[in-house]
Amino acid sequence: MKFQKNILKVLTATSLLIGASSCKLDDFGDINKNPNSILVPVTSSLLTNALLDFGTPSSTGSLNGALYCQYFAETQYTETSLYATPQIAWDGIYAGGLYDLQNIINNNTNAATATYAALNGSNNNQIALARILKAYRLLTMTDLWGDMPASEALLENVKPKYDTQQEVYNLIFKELKEAIAQFDAGDTPKGDIVHNGNLTRWRKFANTLRMIMALRISKVDPATGKTQFLDALASTGGVIDANEDNTALTYPGGAYKNPWFNLYDGRKDYAVSDVFADIMLSNEDPRINAMAQPNSTGEIVAFPYGLTRDDAITFANGNSDYSFIFEQSLRQATSTSQILTASHAYLARAEAAQLGWTTENAASMYSKGIEMSWKQWGVFDQAKFNTFISSDNVSLATSPLTKIQLQRYVAFYPNGHMGWSEWRRTGVPALVATPKATNATKAIPRRYVYGANEATLNGDNFKAAVGRLSGGNTQDAKIWWDK
């Protein structure tokens, strides 16, 4: 697998305008054209660049989300675990991967560049894959901030409107369904470092993502959720149903190391939290020994969640063998980061069946989902699994919906975006805010606060979006589906 560098990266000086300007370069004739520059980007390089941070914990809110949903604990600098209120800008997301993906779409659509772009795969296949990846990024963003520019973003509009989150979700549902139908029999996209141009696997990814989204709106719009879920489940290409089809990114090392390796390369700022570890250990779930690093005697030394900096340093000094995130063999420079898996798909099907959305057997889907997760983490043993799945804390004989939702929370580890979103939607597990919280309400954050530049760069649309938030632009305001 060869990673290619992006040979064309254009960054704007504005917040989310990406590619936007009050005037265009061609308004000035040739005066702004460098005769030695590459005027048409290599779309395979743009695709590779857009996929490089696909599994990165610090990208698009995953690391903060993992702290908010208490997968992790901070061991030194504990501000995020204490719910400090940063204004997190989205500029880099729009100007980074989203801009690359929009460029792929533009260059494969424009008659002047489409023939050159087609050297890297059929125009339709490149556009369809870019649309799927763009939809995934928009989903992670709207689940962090709520209302946001989507329909008018990336289209040379310096002041795009903030779509409501409901509108963003509808847009993403549409994009995913249309993209699957757009794939053709032509050459597959070059630069695909995730599935190597395997469009069947990308169809499965898109359909599975639609199921995840459909359940996310199960409280606020169950009718649409059920319709979308059933449509995705029956869609061409199917959903992820085997670990061999998981969407995952394997890093080659060198200049492109696995981000979890980088997280501990000279630092040790994060550990598995006692909250998450206690859930796993109380159920005698062997995945914890892969999800976290056992000490020399094989024990998990979980780090207390939500400590002050002084208390965290004291604990770390007295417990130097505290458990890092992942067993060591899973956070090597060349390790694989899982993004969307068979376990996620089966457990989503279990919840949908429990809600009465499908006629599938909830218990069967639930058991298969946990089995796929155990196999993914390399801990599957049939006898131990049989004991686990029939235990009181796991069996669906009582509180079936809550238990399904808890296993979905576990299966999404370490993806903080997904874990935090599921906890906000379901309240499972019953997390308690740290008593050391420094924010005014002392509550676990429910969203990101809009970046500081938005009020200046896109004032009217920003104010309209803030006006729709109960309580204003705070981290305590709930987004649309958070009921």
From TrEMBL:
Signal peptide: none annotated. This is Starch-binding associating with outer membrane. Coiled coil: none annotated. SUPFAM superfamilies: TPR-like. It comes from the Bacteria. InterPro entries: SusD-like_2 (IPR041662), TPR-like_helical_dom_sf (IPR011990). Pfam families: SusD-like_2 (PF12771).
